[in-house]
Amino acid sequence: MFQSMMTPILALVCWTLIMWVWMYATRIPAMRKAGIDPATAKDKSVMDRLPIEVRRIADNYNHLHEQPVIFYALVLYSHLVGVSDEFNIMLAWAYVLIRVIHSLIQCLWNFIPMRFLVFCLGSIVLVIMAVRNVMAVLA
Questions:
Q1: How many helices and strands (H and E) does the chain possess?
Q2: What is the pLDDT of residue 69?
Q3: Whole-structure pTM over 0.85, yes or no?
């Protein structure tokens, strides 16, 4: 499991789906409580009536479709060109762990300075992976 470059992709996809379930498990009851009818809601601003705790989970779900796209591309590239050594696999797992931590911070606490620090750590992991792939191409 920890020897494949592709397994971290599966792990982050599964985490994203967990967040999707969490989002709807909180959003649908909150919409009912706020009297929001999805059939008549014309724009996203209607969702501003939901409690911030519910909106943060949806925001995080959306965030899992932003920067992780770079992760998916880097991991696939690393795997396809053979730069899936032990260190890159470790970096890929580190990124997945960082994204899970980022999600939990955002959804449960949302202390922005801590969340930003964790986001930066994830970005650094992606930079290291990208640099290692560029170095492999140039070698």
A1: 5, 0
A2: 98
A3: yes
